[in-house]
Amino acid sequence: MSRHPTPRRSARRPTKAPKKRSAAATRTRILDAALREFATRGFAGARVDVIAGEARANKRMLYAYVGNKDALWLATLEAVYTAKRQEERQLATATLSPEEAMRALIRFNFRYHLDHPEFVALVNNENLMGARKLRRSKLVPQLYSPLLETLTEVLRRGQKAKVFRSGVDPMQLYISIAALGYFYISNIRTLSVIFASDLASQKGMKQREEHVIEVVMSYLGR
């Protein structure tokens, strides 16, 4: 009985896509692990070997994909700022009335700090270090330019509709919006003790959110 030759498989050149996807996935795991470690222990207390272990990587891979501890911190800090800006851009303020758009921006900032304590933890720690590491970032300042443009446009529409007063500085307005929620969230434990009130309760959070909106909208009103 004759034998048919086994067909030879045609040689195919391996594509680079799987390797790129693997590299991206590894970097994501590293940054996720770094975020958990830094948010829990701060920069000084965080350990690179713990981050590597949590990311299912080794230190050599960690240094290759991101860098040393300083580079890890900065990359993680940039990631949390980027995540916040990306979510904020989903608000579609251009489709809302000026007042609705402003309320949406205020509410988003308050709830983001509430829902993302890791953001608050990293920013607090970076401030304690004098923002020395953030100074090296070219990305983070660029993230805030579109935000100020959005605020400027919402203010312009509100002034045109005669519902917002003129002469409002978009940068100062944003700092006030962020501060009114950020301070509350970052100091909620001490404030709860001082005022003997459960400020972290759903009722307490809702009252604070409405107060922040009222304060900002009253300031903007004509």
Going by CATH, the homologous superfamily of the largest domain would be Tetracycline Repressor, domain 2
The chain-level structural class is mainly alpha
The share of residues in extended strands comes to under 5%
Q: What Rg is obtained from the alpha carbons, in whole angstroms?
A: 24 Å
Main β-sheet description: none
**Low-confidence residue ranges:** 1-7, 14-18
According to CATH, what is the class of the largest domain? Mainly Alpha
**From the 3D coordinates, which CATH architecture of the largest domain would you assign?**
Orthogonal Bundle
Query: What is the averaged pLDDT score?
Result: 90
CATH topology of the largest domain: Tetracycline Repressor, domain 2
Succession of helices and strands: HHHHHHHHHH
The helix tally amounts to: 10
Helical content band? over 70%
Compute the separation of the termini in Å. Answer: 98 Å
Number of domains: 2
The number of E-state strands comes to 0
Shape: globular
Structural summary, described in words:
This protein has 222 residues and is mostly helical. Helix content is 72%, strand content 0%. The protein has two domains: 18-67, Arc Repressor Mutant, subunit A (Orthogonal Bundle), CATH 1.10.10; 73-220, Orthogonal Bundle (Tetracycline Repressor, domain 2), CATH 1.10.357. The chain has helices at 17-45, 48-54, 59-65, 69-89, 98-115, 117-128, 139-160, 170-186, 188-194, 202-220. α4 (69-89) runs parallel beside α7 (139-160) and α8 (170-186) packs antiparallel against α10.
